[in-house]
Amino acid sequence: MVKAKWFKVLSFTVVFLLVVSLLAGCGGQKASQPSDNQQNQQQSSGEQKSVKIAVIVKALNSDYWKIVEAGAKAAGKDLGVDVEVLGPSAETAVSEQVSMIEDQITKKVSALAVAPSQPASAIPAFDQAKAAKIPVVLIDTDAQWPDKVSFVGTGNYNGGKLAGEFLAEKLGKGGKVVILRGAMGDPTHDERANGAIEVMKAKGLEIVDIQPANSERGLGMTVMENILQAHPDIQGMFATNDEMALGALRAIQAAKKQIITVGFDGSPDALKSIAAGELTASIAQSPYNIGYKGVEAAVKAAKGEQVDKRIDTGTSVISKDNVAEEQKKLNEILGK
């Protein structure tokens, strides 16, 4: 009797423990399931997070940068990402541009595409971006910063050489030329000027003066007026952007001089002037491609994809011989 009773108690205990064990197992499974779902939701949310690219150029007060902007926004539309294009009041407003870079880092954009006015001044901000795990693509102007994702832009030195070759062909050995350049210390203008100087010297041209005009049309005119007073016999002029070239052209026209004038950028205003028989030529880069490919590279970097370390967008000479075709291309880009 006692034995039977003890057997019943033992059986009940075993059954009870089995039930508790099963319930505990089910409870543990239910507790882990929401965690898996939550993880999947977080992963899905991360995948759907919109990509935001900040494009910071040197200024937005010239046709050149407006075309860069058009290319950047077109890339954003094609790639389905948010693109904001920003720029300071002038290419010489270096601290203003650096503040813009820092502001976009604070806003935690997905990636930056920057055309630094003074690369050395921008490097501390680039270091901040790196610390925040924000990839940086440099466009138009390169910098000695090892952590950049890529440089997207023109071979400015080779473009300067094209300008030198054009002037040498037009003037011949002994021709007297002047160079107007952008802000001192801007590597873009350093490279353009140095490329032209190399060829001009090799071809026997005489460089009578080199003056900065800070990439501005008004200053280009003023600087050229002073040069013409000091050197009234010059025969050729190279400006390292079209804004300065067009300003210099005004001074040349006012002085009633016949001078071969070459700019750099292939801007709409420069092309109009070439078509009108005023400006002689412009070394055209592709600002649209710089903006487009810059955003393209930034998006790839934001997604962790491989990006080429250097993307060259090329240069060519625009003169009266091909200006009509180039104008048509620009009008299509700007929607004119």
TrEMBL record:
Its main location: other. Residues 53-306 form the Periplasmic binding protein domain. PROSITE patterns: PROKAR_LIPOPROTEIN. One of its GO terms (cellular component) is cell envelope. CDD domains: PBP1_ABC_sugar_binding-like. GO terms for molecular function: carbohydrate binding. The keyword Repressor does not apply. Keywords: Signal. It is found in: Cell envelope. It holds the Pfam family Peripla_BP_4. Belongs to the bacterial solute-binding protein 2 family. This is Sugar ABC transporter substrate-binding protein. It comes from Biomaibacter acetigenes.
